[in-house]
Amino acid sequence: DYPPMRKLFEYIAEITRIRRELFDIVSLGEKLDASDGIFQRAEPLVKFSGGKDVKWTVFRDAKTGKRAIVLANLGGAPVDVVGLGLEDAQNACRVYQAFSPTREARFPITTHIPAEAVVFVATEN
After folding, report:
1. What are 12-62's pLDDT values in tens digits?
2. pTM of the model
3. CA nearest 72: which of 34, 45, 44, 102?
4. Residue 87: what pLDDT?
């Protein structure tokens, strides 16, 4: 009920809803690649242009093979990510973003990421 925190709580609820929907991939799945850290590959799976402040991680559900890219804009300004794709995927995907309906797309995609926000992109197969 604390008014200054209301927007943050609404955002957390949205991200929790998305994570629940993608639970088998992003919570139980294995990390395949990341923009930095110990899971970073010499040849990244993720390709895109734009957004120097955008960090990402790729997860895979070991049972189904479905994958998800979690893109995080760590900067203080919104960014447009252009030509987002997975190295070996030219297939259908779904884009999940807080306060927006899930949209169907095909790689490569373009998406807008608000400042200090995340976007999830999950493969269909």
Report:
1. 999 999 999 999 999 999 999 999 999 999 999 999 998 789 999 999 999
2. 0.92
3. 34
4. 81
Q: C-alpha distances in angstroms, 4 versus 1, 7, 8, 115?
A: 9, 7, 8, 18
Contacts of 61 (CB under 8 A, 6+ apart): 24, 25, 28, 29, 67
- How much is the pLDDT for 93? 94
Cβ contact 103:94 at 8 Å: yes
Q: Which among 112, 125, 52 is positioned nearest to 80, based on CA atoms?
A: 112
For residues 92 and 120, the answer to whether their CB atoms sit within 8 Å is: no
String of DSSP letters for 3-16: GGGHHHHHHHHHHH
Element (H, E) at 17: helix 6-21
Residue position matching structure tokens 């929790």: 16
d(CA 119, CA 72): 7
